[in-house]
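Postdoc handover notes: sequence design on the structure in folder B. Input tokens:
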């Protein structure tokens, strides 16, 4: 019963009829010798979740199809070439302040030639008539038609009422270390300048005219622009200085966003912040995906970040999973984001995933051809955004100190694994409180492992390592209980490009710190790993490459943040209880009435496409004649809106 609009560009060596069939709804297209645009409306008489479009020729011959598009007529807001209504409405319901697009590594992986179908994402190839947008591959391994492009992203932001935050490539593909130089770099810089005209320029400018021809003669507006995604390299930062100078000269009102890479601690991260301060950038884009325990242990992470200078733009973050325990950990962390003056913006990522094609998890919204699933993570983001407030309120909570440590002792087996490579290991020694133990030389390859021994407390591991062949390097696992619970020093990880210290808890990993490292075949490296209490240090050839303190997990009774909303005068209290027992508190405000929006469920509860409402917020109302006594349920996120005297 729904209407679907079919568009086909086609030609044939002789007149021929083609029948289009969509679950029994049919239309005939008459092909001729010249390229012709064919339009038809198909209205199926039955529903089919696995429907597909059939194009059948009535006779033999040669014909060519250059563009085939089938779109529902009932797109969100009725936009032609618009978005799927239920997904777009779910985003609009969150009332976000901004939208970052096109997202992630999509923006910086590919050949530097912008005309290549394997080229880096280029916004100019995503605007104009849909049939003239060249398709491309991307590093997530699927084909993009570019039917969803920068025009549609800007239009979505306008329809939702949020700020557009586009990301442009900075002249670097970090996955393959391709750098734009000379005229090619200038072309990338010009692309960024032209984007400003596309968003803000009048119809008399080259790219403002493109926007106007697409149906939007008035400007969209643009206040934020990010250059690059997770790039941390000296040549990138030199490029960034060129971008910043050109963009500021064209439009000084643009707030520029740089990058601090994909890890929250380490030398590359520090380098990203150093360059941002030297270049006077407005924001630094941080990305990380960690275990729920990490988010709880670091809920106050940004407390000491300075309020002056560049602010934090937390452009990608999530805990590993879509269960209620993940949403609780993220909510607790978000109270810290709201309380930290050095944090300017934050957004969960990734946002969307088609359940029929999954190459990353977790995601905020899952969908298939006919349904959508709002995860507990989505509901946390939504209630926080819908109840932001305009000014923070200083909050004092009595008896809200963290409890006893829930972190396990750093103790267990110590072993070395080859990571898809061949390794010669020699001069291996382990020093503990009982003394030093020497082990015989060994060769391991593929995924073979060498067990060193058991450690309990402080220890030092020393060895010489030589890579004989392969793609990566070594995995030194310590405090190893099983594959889901251990610490790890990765030497030559991710395309043989880094050294990092990690922790894995219940199968969810957290990268604690990371530095750049490229292992050379045939060269012998001296490795040393020190554990002193919870301080972890890694050295290569006597030089410290990684150092971090693994923070203990101490749970607070409540994680809290408060604000006031100018338009209503409401005092908004956000309270997160990540434990089973309810917490009853006296709120020291003269409250007349209140509303409470509460998300409450068992830690392992989750929503699915078949059962999308297992976890959902509940709204309640109440009155008070003085200070409000309120019980915050166990495993809950509560937003209290209080109307106070």
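Designed sequence:
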């Amino acid at each position: 019963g729904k209407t679907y609009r079919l568009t086909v560009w086609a030609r044939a060596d002789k007149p021929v009829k083609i029948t289009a069939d969509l679950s029994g709804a049919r239309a005939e297209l008459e092909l001729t010798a010249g390229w012709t645009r064919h339009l038809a409306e198909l209205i199926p008489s039955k529903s089919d979740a696995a429907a597909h479009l059939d194009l059948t020729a009535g006779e033999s011959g040669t014909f060519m199809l250059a563009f085939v598009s089938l779109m529902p007529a009932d797109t969100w807001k009725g936009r032609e070439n618009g978005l799927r209504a239920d997904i777009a409405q779910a985003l609009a319901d969150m009332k976000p302040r901004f939208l970052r697009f096109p997202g992630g590594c999509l923006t910086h992986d590919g050949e530097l030639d912008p005309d290549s179908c394997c080229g880096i994402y280029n916004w100019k190839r995503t605007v104009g008539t849909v049939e003239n947008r060249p398709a491309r591959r991307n590093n997530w391994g699927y084909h993009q038609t570019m039917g969803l492009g920068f025009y549609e992203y800007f239009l979505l932001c306008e329809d939702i009422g949020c700020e557009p935050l586009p990301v442009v490539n900075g002249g670097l593909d970090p996955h393959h270390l391709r750098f734009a130089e000379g005229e090619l770099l200038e072309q990338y810089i010009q692309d960024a300048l032209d984007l400003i005209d596309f968003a803000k320029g009048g119809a008399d400018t080259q790219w403002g005219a493109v926007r106007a021809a697409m149906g939007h003669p008035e400007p969209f507006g643009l206040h934020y622009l990010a250059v690059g995604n997770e790039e941390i390299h000296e040549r990138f930062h030199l490029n960034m200085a060129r971008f910043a100078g050109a963009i500021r000269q064209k439009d000084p009102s643009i707030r520029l966003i740089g990058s601090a890479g994909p890890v929250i601690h380490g030398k590359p991260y520090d380098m990203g912040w150093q360059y941002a301060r030297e270049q006077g950038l407005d924001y630094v884009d941080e990305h990380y995906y960690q275990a729920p325990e990490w988010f709880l242990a670091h809920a106050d992470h940004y407390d000491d970040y300075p309020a002056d200078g560049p602010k934090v733009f937390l452009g990608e973050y999530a805990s590993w999973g879509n269960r209620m325990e993940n949403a609780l950990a993220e909510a607790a962390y978000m109270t810290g984001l709201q309380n930290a003056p050095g944090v300017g913006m934050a957004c969960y990522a990734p946002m969307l995933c088609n359940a029929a094609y999954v190459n990353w998890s977790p995601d905020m919204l899952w969908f298939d051809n006919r349904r959508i699933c709002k995860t507990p993570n989505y509901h946390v983001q939504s209630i926080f955004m819908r109840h932001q407030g305009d000014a923070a309120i200083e909050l004092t909570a009595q008896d809200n100190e963290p409890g006893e440590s829930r972190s396990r002792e750093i103790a267990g087996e110590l072993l070395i694994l080859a990571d898809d490579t061949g390794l010669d290991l020699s001069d291996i020694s382990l020093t503990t409180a009982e003394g030093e133990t020497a082990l015989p030389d060994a060769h391991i390859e593929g995924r073979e492992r060498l067990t060193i021994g058991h450690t309990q407390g402080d220890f030092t591991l020393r060895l010489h390592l030589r890579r004989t062949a392969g793609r990566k390097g070594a995995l030194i696992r310590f405090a190893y209980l099983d594959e889901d619970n251990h610490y790890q020093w990765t030497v030559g990880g991710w395309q043989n490009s880094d050294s990092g210290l990690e922790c894995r808890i219940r199968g969810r990993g957290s990268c604690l710190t990371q530095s750049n490292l490229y292992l050379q075949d045939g060269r012998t490296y001296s490795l040393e790993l020190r554990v002193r209490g919870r301080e972890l240090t890694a050295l290569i050839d006597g030089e410290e490459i990684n150092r971090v303190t693994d923070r203990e997990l101490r749970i607070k009774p409540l994680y809290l943040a408060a604000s006031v909303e100018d338009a209503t005068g409401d005092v908004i209290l956000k309270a997160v209880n990540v434990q089973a027992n309810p917490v009853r508190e006296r709120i020291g405000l003269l409250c007349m009435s209140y509303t409470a929006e509460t998300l409450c469920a068992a830690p392992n509860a989750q929503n699915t496409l078949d059962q999308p409402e297992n976890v959902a917020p509940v709204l309640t109302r109440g009155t008070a004649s003085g200070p409000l006594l309120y019980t915050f349920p166990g495993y809950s996120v509560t937003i209290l809106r209080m109307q106070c005297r």
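Context for whoever picks this up: The mean pLDDT is 94. Don't rerun without checking with the PI first.
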